[in-house]
Amino acid sequence: AVKSKLQTVEGVKNVDVDLDNQVVRILGSSPVKTMTEALEQTGRKARLIGQGVPDDFLISAAVAEFKGPDIFGVVRLAQVSMELTRIEANFSGLSPGKHAWSINEFGDLTRGAASTGKLYSLPLGDLGTLDVDEKGEAFYSGPKEKLRVADLIGRAIAVYATEDKSDPGLTAAVIARSAGVG
C-alpha cells in the first residue's frame, strides 16, 4: 500500500520500503511535504530524517531551523545538481501577508536578523517573498539556479516583517550541514 501510493506522486522515480526497520527511501524530485502527506494517507506517521542526492557532492544538504519564541520553521536546501539547489520551507507564527526572505552573509545572530549582514551574493541570496496565510503559516518549495549548498554553510536565512529587505528583519537562523540519506 505504501509503495503503490508513493509511486502515484508526481516526481517520484523509485520507492524502497523496509517494513522491518520502518524505513521508506524515496528517489524523486517532489517536495518533501507532498511525499510525507502521501505516506500519511496510508494511515502511517511520517517524518523526514534526512535528504540528499544520489551523486556524492561535497555537501549535498543543509538546514536552517527557526526555534521561536514566536516564529518557528525549517528551511531545507538540497543540491540537485552542481548548478541547481532545491529549497523547501515551512513557517508558523508569522503575521498574514507577504514577507521577504533572504540568505544573508553572516550566521551572526547576536542581534537577531539585524546582525546577519547584507544579502549574500545578489541575486543568489534573494529568495523573494513568502505568502503567509491567515493562520500565520507559509510553505515554499522551488528551485534556485547557480546556488551551491556548500557555499551557504554558516550563513543565515532571514525573514522580514514586510516585502522590504531593508528593515532589520523579524527572525533569522544559521544554515547548517544536514545529513543526507544514503
UniProtKB/TrEMBL annotation:
<dbReference type="GO" id="GO:0009626">
    <property type="term" value="P:plant-type hypersensitive response"/>
</dbReference>
<dbReference type="Pfam" id="PF00080">
    <property type="entry name" value="Sod_Cu"/>
</dbReference>
<comment type="similarity">
    <text>In the C-terminal section; belongs to the Cu-Zn superoxide dismutase family.</text>
</comment>
<dbReference type="InterPro" id="IPR036423">
    <property type="entry name" value="SOD-like_Cu/Zn_dom_sf"/>
</dbReference>
<dbReference type="InterPro" id="IPR001424">
    <property type="entry name" value="SOD_Cu_Zn_dom"/>
</dbReference>
<keyword id="KW-0186">Copper</keyword>
<dbReference type="InterPro" id="IPR006121">
    <property type="entry name" value="HMA_dom"/>
</dbReference>
<dbReference type="GO" id="GO:0016020">
    <property type="term" value="C:membrane"/>
</dbReference>
<dbReference type="InterPro" id="IPR024134">
    <property type="entry name" value="SOD_Cu/Zn_/chaperone"/>
</dbReference>
<dbReference type="GO" id="GO:0006801">
    <property type="term" value="P:superoxide metabolic process"/>
</dbReference>
<feature type="domain" description="HMA">
    <location>
        <begin position="1"/>
        <end position="47"/>
    </location>
</feature>
<dbReference type="InterPro" id="IPR036163">
    <property type="entry name" value="HMA_dom_sf"/>
</dbReference>
<protein>
    <recommendedName>
        <fullName>Superoxide dismutase copper chaperone</fullName>
    </recommendedName>
</protein>
<dbReference type="GO" id="GO:0005507">
    <property type="term" value="F:copper ion binding"/>
</dbReference>
<dbReference type="Pfam" id="PF00403">
    <property type="entry name" value="HMA"/>
</dbReference>
